[in-house]
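Troubleshooting entry. The earlier prediction with S-adenosylmethionine gave an output that would not parse, so I re-checked the input for stray whitespace and re-submitted. Clean input:
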Amino acid sequence: MKTTTDASPSWPENLSAHGPSCTDKLHRPLRDLRISVTDRCNLRCTYCMPREIFGRKFIFLRHAELLSFEEIVRIARQGIALGVRKIRLSGGEPLLRHGIERLVEMLAPLCGEDGKPIELAMTSNATLLAKKARDLKNAGLGRLNISLDALDETTFRRMCGSRNAPIGAVLEGIAAAQATGLTPVKVNAVVKRGVNEDEILPLVHHFRHTGIILRFIEFMDVGLSNGWRLADVVTAREILARITAEYPLRPLGPLCPGEVAKRWEFADGGGEIGVIASVSQAFCHECGRLRLSTDGKLYTCLFAGEGTDLRDMLRARCDDGALRQHIADVWHERGDRYSQMRQAMTWNPVGKIEMSYIGG
Ligand code: SAM
Ligand code: SF4
Ligand code: SF4
């Protein structure tokens, strides 16, 4: 199994596509900022917030603990000064954050040093999107990624851990995103063995010829609560084999460095699909993503154990220069490549899988 992508463009050292930028220990430029705007969600996907752990007794953050919109924008500005060109709002479910349109409105005008506006996107489960898509577009949101793991209602509800989850609302949300021009809409489906791999082809069939880009994601070992087992991962290779048996595909090159999805097009002109092989074909060598948690901690990797707090600094009225330097220091110290290390341990040709290494 390979650890790098053949056709990936690589970054000249210390340069982003837009000029000088902040690089980490592995020469990866800071490029994307993912901002979690709430730790709450109205679904309980088994692979993300399993109900047994995130149940009634689970204590979520109090409002005073969340970063305010003004605090988020201050951090975003300094990230942009250090090279960030894309901001993604996520969560939890970002549409649950009261007044989220106002945050979008505050972030949308921000520009990089090249004078070009940053790319502003959101990832949502779309259950609340139908009524909000127009306001989000008017506020300046650029694009939306929507999570949908199955079309069959029973399987959908099993994946999202909610007996009454409204698949109709999700489909309406997708339609609203497309109608309002939050395009290209991408639909992300996590595939978990024994649960929804039979939904791969129905999803492909449903979204072909719609302009919506469907992407399949390998089930990842994020956090400690989702009971991840390597055996439950349906690999990109298996996913593609299922699809190509029905619909021949042609590979497409990446649109930009660090793109996580491998892109394909249907040979018959049915559009584009993607596969995110985070487990079987790690892409750490190109990862330029910094994450900001709901309560103001910076995480340099999806699998990092510890974050660096910025909230206290902000609330102690630090100046922008100090804030920027602090973010730069965090990025300079970064050497994360968790998925590549996991891959080296679990996908080596000898096949000696050490589950304890990855926290089983
Ligand atoms: N609630 C929003 C949603 O579901 O789109 C945004 C937050 S959610 C954490 C962001 C993305 O992470 C979703 O596309 C979800 O499918 C994906 N995700 C969460 N846990 C995952 C896991 N264990 N493996 C792979 N993808 C995962
Ligand atoms: Fe909620 Fe998104 Fe996680 Fe599902 S994946 S539980 S919708 S945050
Ligand atoms: Fe980036 Fe960490 Fe994921 Fe590697 S494991 S791609 S460094 S977030």
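This one parsed fine. Residues 283-284, 287, 289, 301-303, 336-339 surround iron/sulfur cluster (ligand 3) (CB under 6 Å).
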